[in-house]
Amino acid sequence: MSKKLSRRDFLKLSCAAAAAGMVLVGCGPASRYVTRVPYAEMPEYQHIGKSTYYATTCRECPAGCGLIVRTFEGRAIKVEGNPNHPVNRGKICPRGLTSVQGVYNLDRITGPVMQGRRGKAGGQAISWDEAVALVKKRFQETKGSEIAFLLGAMPDSLYDLTSELASALKAPAPVRYSALNYLEGRDVWLAVASQYFGTPSFPYFDLENAEIVFNFGAEFLENWLSPMAYSRGYRGFRKGQLGARGYMVSFAPRQSISAAAADEWIPIKPGSEALVALALTRLAAYARSEFSPEITRQVDIKAAAEASGISEEKLKELASRFAGSNRPLAIGGGSALAGKSAFETASAILALNATVYNFNQTGGVFLTPAKAPSERFADVQALFEKMRSGAVKTLFIHGVNPLFDLPAALNAAEAFKRVETIVSFSSFPDETALASDYILPDHTMLEGWGYQTVLAGTTRKIVSAIQPVVVPLYDTRSTADVLIAAGGLPYKDEVDFLQQKILPLMSAGGTFTAPELPSFWAKFLQYGGWWQKSADYAAIDADALLKSSISMPEPHPAPADQYHLVVYPTQFGDGSGANRPWLHETPNPATTVMWNSWVEIHPQTAKKLGIHDDDVVRIRSEFGEIEAVAYLYPALRPDTVALPFGLGHEALGRFAEGRGCNPARLFPNASSQNGNLAWADTLVSLSPTGKRRPIARQESRHGVYGDGE
Amino acid sequence: MQRKKPWWQNAGLRIGIALVMLVLLGGAATGVVITQKAPQQPIEFPHNFHVGTGIPCAYCHSGAETGPVAGLPSIETCWGCHQQLRTNTPRLAKLAEYGSTNTPIPWVPVFIQPDFVHFNHRPHVAAGLECKTCHGDTAGQTVAEPIPGQNMGWCLDCHYKMAPENFTRLSDCATCHY
Amino acid sequence: MSEKVEAKKWGMVVDLDLCTGCQACVTACAMENNIPYTGEDETAYGRGLHWIRIQRYWKGEYPEVSPTHQPVMCQQCGHAPCEPVCPVYASVHSEEEQINVQVYNRCVGTRYCANNCPYISRTFNWFDYPHPVPESYSLNPDVTVRRRGVMEKCTFCVQRIRHAVDTAQAEGREIEDGEVMTACQQACPTGAIIFGDLSKKESAVSQAARSQRSFRLLEELGTEPKVVYLKGGGNYGG
To answer: Which pLDDT score, from 0 to 100, does residue A709 have?
Structure first.
């Protein structure tokens, strides 16, 4: 018999299918009755069917951008930039945008937990009363000198509070760091400013009004100092508000988005940035018919040309162009400020600015008014050394993940074992939280109070307000409240502390003031912070800088089978963004890779080593090794490989765990003389593993598996 | 030789399928009918009485004039009047229970649109439409009753009749679907 | 009924000289428009649901190599190739906003429109992508959550247009230039995206569109896109 259906049977079957379809359709409307639960007491700021907007401040990186968060019926819907905020003027980066996925993350810690065993997820839920009692007990029973606070990306208010608490307990001052510090050269700028200008403040580079910019590795569009402020600066620079469209030259071994935005990219040899900046300083002074400053005495133009791979003629041409411009500016960051000679490089970059007299000038260099807390890696090292010696009994950790972002060579996990009690205030189950004894989760950024002192990207004093836009989703508690209650500080609660701290601002001449505190506080929250009407910077003097003598950094060319290492932060920031699905789904700007990390290798190098796109490559340094998928990146020096930072977590929830690789495993446990983590001198070797793992990238719409749409 | 019947001509199977279809179709029909009936509410709210005493609709459904949704009253709204009034009927006793414990009443909305329809009350109220044009004569109802067949054709019919000069705009897909 | 409201011709200008390719627009679009994430495998198959993407192409050879960045979203063509091929009229032209609208409830998922779109700006829901609680709390109530088998694309943030038009009408005034901001424009750190009414001569967007640097994508196809690009950043037309 035939297997074919007759026409008649086909029609019958179609009828049956149609009927079944009807049934399904019929069930649709039947399920449409839902219950709606109106507010029991509708808040007066709420209006039926309308969104409510709150001003607050972003805490994803230290920049302190102002946010306006749209809430609807008590839920945070969308994060937008605060158009009046002087740092970002309404603009916002991917990490800030996805902060709603931080609040509503699927892997949050829902309440205080006593870990059964360190390093293992799960544990016993405790009440907040027990938690506070426990912290109190640790404060009372541990000697002040044996308490330590390790802090990171947190509201500055909490840092100030912890500092107060530490001095009340006679404990050492809290140690604060973030991976962005040593990846972007933040700590180096602070060291340089303290040395030459006597204040630990970040310089502000007036990119907006500059005419020609020399950029030594600063990724100002991505993560450097204050990315939104400098992106706006880039717009002004391109639009040429004071004249011609700006001209930018970028000196970097790898083309980042910022380097790609330049008009000219010079693939400088890693480690020769200081020499080039000094040579340019000297040549610029020469081009202006002036004496070359003291700081450039030792530099030899020929040697600099040789070390950097830039010809002498090119250096001269660049220098005379720089010297001849009305508003020249030199900036630096990234891997240029992350080696042993980072301090010298930053000094040389400042000297290049000073030699064209652009300090305190439009389109030049200013000093940000706010004093920044120390972020030296050497302090972190010292703390871990102290832990290792057993001199730390109780460790409090907030806003930072040392088991992930510190060099593996530091062996933080080993040091943790010598600490009796570790208390983590993390909102997410990251590596460090799991390795602690107690997790007392803080609110996430859209649920908590605070203020953020804006440290970079401005010439005004700005104190940016953080207020909750939604009620806490889970049984979390503000760390500030926990510390106030347990430490017996003279404040009623966190808000009381904040109000006392902003009290001096009432008479400090900002854009607004009020006769009494409650209305000042209300305005402070409404506007999203307090800031001065106009610039208020301390003039800086170039004398000390130009007359100083710095040791000449020695270039360290890579041997034939080894490669320089460039590690750069991506949209995941210090790695804490790795649990946000939409940050994974957002393609990397340079490679368009999603949901994974990769190692960038120049096509020539890859050919030499027999590596193809999507091959898994083993990267080995003196201090560790990792495996990553090869991405043949054309805009990179052949003697350099580049790795994105932020992925490679062993914990932190379903979206982060086991995804990508962590370059911190390759870093040395070495700090330079001025205390920054010197990772940029690391040399690595590459070897193919023979494995292949296609990674998702947007650049090919045909998909890497070959059969996509 | 008897030809073996193909499996789909098996009488038992056919009866079985017919029964299953009957049940499913019956279920579907019931589903359709149910949606045209007023749903069970937590409190049998007497619209007729409240509208009869002259309370404007917007007193409880206050969002209609200013926003997309009219909203359902919170316990505050009910309790504002009713704590002054008697609670001797079973319905009021229920309300008193919600009111005294300050729990929201889980109302079941009657006039709801699917997710892909974005209806906006404000322009309709601004155009001078009365509530009863779309919601029926609530003065004669206890709990609100749905209007059968209130679909897109129903909307467009009215848009065409009321404003033929604006019909291009009012029949635009993006007016409601986005 | 109220008096006849004049039709707007919404349009967008993207200044490629200012675009740095930072991807803020991509994330902003996803956050505004309830775009689900699809995961590593799906994005690798090219099934990511980005309504806007940054086209990054390399130009030149090392060391003179540099990338060009071009944000590409639905070009809201005046003569849209996606419209005539839809068998169920799910891809239609809006007379009011002068954009292409995708009517999700009509769409049956033939994907003819995506195949006929020269800008590859349409994305298809191959699966029902989950919105688990509490992640779903941040869904935008003004935008439909699409289900499996439905085509979707950039809408020029029509929910924001509708909201602004409705507000202006209720307040009895004309809609102002700059009152409607698309999510990508709002986020763009360098302000490379301008949005507004192209039919008004004095609006910021139509002033920018008249720039000598302006070009449209695949202009020769006669699709009359409403998105105008300004040459720069290594992108010089075509």
So the answer is: 38
Query: Smallest CA–CA separation between B22 and chain A, in Å?
Result: 10
* pLDDT over threshold 90, residue B113: no
Of residues A432, A423, A410, A581, the one with CA closest to residue A487: A423
Predicted TM-score of the model (pTM): 0.91
H-only helix segments in A473-627: 479-487, 494-502, 517-527, 543-547, 581-585, 603-609
- The tokens of C117 are what? 């779109």
CATH number at residue C153: 3.30.70.20
Q: Does C103 touch chain B (CB under 8 A)?
A: yes
pLDDT beyond 70 at B33 = yes
What distance in Å separates the CA atoms of residue A228 and residue A96, rounded to the nearest whole number? 11
Residue A76, CA distances (Å) to A59, A103, A415, A443, C110 in order:
16, 8, 39, 14, 35
pLDDT digits (tens, 9 = 90+) for A563-616: 999 999 999 999 999 999 999 999 999 999 999 999 999 999 999 999 999 999
- CA-based nearest distance C143→chain B, Å: 6
Whether residue A44 lies within 8 A of chain B, CB to CB, comes out as no
Selecting from A9, A19, A20 the residue whose C-beta is nearest the C-beta of B8 gives A9
Complete domains list, chain A, with CATH: 7-103 (2.20.25.90), 113-176+374-453+460-531 (3.40.50.740), 183-367 (3.40.228.10), 563-692 (2.40.40.20)
Q: Check residues C1 and A378 and name the one with the higher pLDDT.
A: A378
Checking if the pLDDT of A30 tops 50, the result is: no
The answer to whether B112 contacts A42, with C-beta atoms less than 8 Å apart, is no
Cβ–Cβ below 8 Å for C138 and A104: yes
Indicate whether C158 belongs to any domain: yes
Q: Which chains touch B (3 or more CB pairs under 8 A)?
A: A, C
Contacts of residue C55, defined as CB under 8 A and 6 or more positions apart, other chains included, come to C68, C69, C70, C71, C72
Query: What's the complex ipTM?
Result: 0.93
**Within a domain: residue C5?**
no
* Residue C1, in any domain of the structure: no
Spell out the domain ranges in chain B: 44-72+107-176
**Taking CB atoms and an 8 Å limit, are B126 and C169 in contact across chains?**
yes
Q: How far apart are CA A433 and CA A400, in angstroms?
A: 9
pLDDT, one tens digit per residue, over A380-429 is 999 999 999 999 999 999 999 999 999 999 999 999 999 999 999 999 99
The verdict on residue C30 lying in a domain is: yes
Q: Do C144 and B175 touch (CB under 8 A)?
A: no
**Number of domain units in chain C:** 1
B11 touches chain A (CB under 8 A): no
Domain span including residue C198: 10-230
Sort out which chain A residues have CB atoms less than 8 A from C24's CB and list them.
Answer: 91-94, 97
Cis peptide upstream of residue A373 (ω within 30 degrees of 0): no
Contact across the interface for B178 and C101, Cβ inside 8 Å: yes
